[in-house]
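Lab meeting, item 3. Inverse folding demo.
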């Protein structure tokens, strides 16, 4: 039985996508790479595809954190601060659960992220819910990136 991990989405099956791994024995985060080379104009915000989807158990979430070197070395920041990948994002009908990294170039120069370059770290975590949550009506996820917001 699979508990938690990463899989390559169908579109990138033959694209040489690496399954994320932890760099050291005590690393919390799994290094997630860019699935394609992406160029950013100064000030531009773009989605970088990972070619990956993540599966996990109920009560778990995958947080995607910016690598600490991105602002200093690349002039890029994860624009939403922390990416949140919910369990029901996996295999959603809109995009198969394909995860993207939303980055912004805050420099005055073009910045390029190369295919295979590590961009974010994914950390699986349990989460808690508030009292009365079980009594609140929930929607079923039907879309991909940004689909649960207005």
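The presenter then showed the designed sequence:
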């Amino acid at each position: 039985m699979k508990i938690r991990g990463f899989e390559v989405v169908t579109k990138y099956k033959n694209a040489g996508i690496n399954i994320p791994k932890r760099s050291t024995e005590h690393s919390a985060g799994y290094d997630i790479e860019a699935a394609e080379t992406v160029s950013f104009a100064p000030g531009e915000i773009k989605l970088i595809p990972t070619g990956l989807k993540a599966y996990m158990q109920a009560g778990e979430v995958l947080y995607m954190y910016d690598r600490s070197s991105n602002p200093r070395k690349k002039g890029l920041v994860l624009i939403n601060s922390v990416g949140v990948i919910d369990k029901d994002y996996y295999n959603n009908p809109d995009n198969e659960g394909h995860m993207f990294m939303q980055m912004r170039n805050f420099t005055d120069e073009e910045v390029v992220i190369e295919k295979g370059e590590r961009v974010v770290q994914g950390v699986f975590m349990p989460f808690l819910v508030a009292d009365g949550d079980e009594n609140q009506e929930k929607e079923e996820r039907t879309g991909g990136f940004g689909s649960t917001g207005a």
